Amino acid sequence: MKTLIVYAHPEPESLNGSLKDLAVATLEGAGHEVRVSDLYAMGWKAAVDAADYGPDASVPLKVARDSGRAFDAGTLTPDVRAEQEKLLWADTIVFQFPLWWYAMPAILKGWVDRVFTYRFAYGVGEHSATRYGERYGEGTLAGRRALLSVTVGGPEAHYAARGINGPIDDLLFPFHHGVLFYPGIDVLPPFVLYGADRMTGEEYRDAAKAWEQRLLTLESTEPIAFRRQNFGDYEIPSLNLKEGLEPAGRTGFGLHVRG
User: Fold this and answer.
1) Rounded CA gap, 202 and 7, in Å?
2) Distances from the Cα of 216 to the Cαs of 1, 23, 28, 213, in angstroms?
3) What angle do CA 9, 145, 3 make, to 5 degrees?
4) Is the separation of the CB atoms in 196 and 98 below 8 Å?
5) Which end of the chain has fewer CB atoms < 10 Å from its terminal CB, N or C?
6) Smallest Cα–Cα separation from 189: which of 214, 162, 216, 155?
7) 117, 57 Cβ separation under 8 angstroms
């Protein structure tokens, strides 16, 4: 297995840094190939601008169109092209990051914004009366798997179904469904550590064992059963879920998960 770890934390000695290092050691120890994109160490530029698209940038800037033209022409900046090549190389992508203000760190969002360009991660495939492009289960990155490894400051109860911060599955849905499943990646259930700022040494040892087990079962873990766009569950072109497919009482993000 070839695994890309995208790591987003500014402190190498942090809990996130330890989990990233443990992932590298565990996967390499099991005979897998591993590459790491350490975004802070790389000095990753988070903001999209015209410089990303070189001679294919227009005035005024049209981010989607210009990024697609630059991708097709091979004129994206070297740092973006390198990350796209890593994604195409990988069988599995592990994202290691803290949950800050209910979302991924800005540097990681900037990685998504710049790397997931038009014609690479979206804007591909046939648009017709029966298909609406290759996305949500199809696309350039289909056949790959991804896992979010997330540290959370608050206790687990705050992120439960009735917790004040909202269910963790809802908070991660934009990343799981909107960033990863959109270009075709199968998304594994997340690995979440709660109470990260107050974790004791004994708690970390237990967490490390659980993390090792998740890593060693990446290939056999069933992905989240998101509904595929072009396989009969949605009306086209409205892309509304067909009536009667949802379990009784289910609403919101859960509509887009089978079973």
Assistant:
1) 24
2) 11, 10, 11, 5
3) 60
4) yes
5) C
6) 214
7) no
Count other C-beta atoms under 10 Å from residue 178's C-beta: 11
Q: Which two tokens stand for residue 221?
A: 């873990």
Q: To 10 degrees, the CA torsion angle through 247, 251, 254, 256?
A: 80
Find residue 95's DSSP bridge partners: 6, 148
3-class DSSP state of 46: coil
Q: How far is Cα 205 from Cα 200, in angstroms, rounded to an integer?
A: 9
pTM for the structure as a whole? 0.94
Give phi and psi for 163, each to the nearest 5: -70, 150
pLDDT confidence tier of residue 245, bands split at 50, 70 and 90: very high
Q: Report CA 101 to chain centroid distance, whole Å.
A: 17
142-156 per-position pLDDT tens digit: 999 999 999 999 999
- Dihedral sign computed on CA atoms, order 106, 181, 48, 4: positive
Phi, psi for 47 (deg, rounded to 5): -90, 130
The vertex-137 CA angle with 36 and 194, nearest 5°, equals: 50
Classify residue 158 as exposed, middle or buried by CB count within 10 Å of its CB (0-12, 13-18, 19+): middle
Token pair for 171: 């908070």
For the chain, how far is it from start to end, CA to CA, in angstroms? Answer: 29
Which distant-in-sequence residues (6+ apart) come within 8 Å of 22 by Cβ? 208, 211, 212
What is the spatial distance between Cα 39 and Cα 29, in angstroms, rounded to a whole number? 24
30-65 exposure pattern, b = at least 16 Cβ within 10 A, e = fewer: eebebebbbbeeeebbeebeeebbeebbeeeeebee
**Mean pLDDT (the chain, rounded):** 95
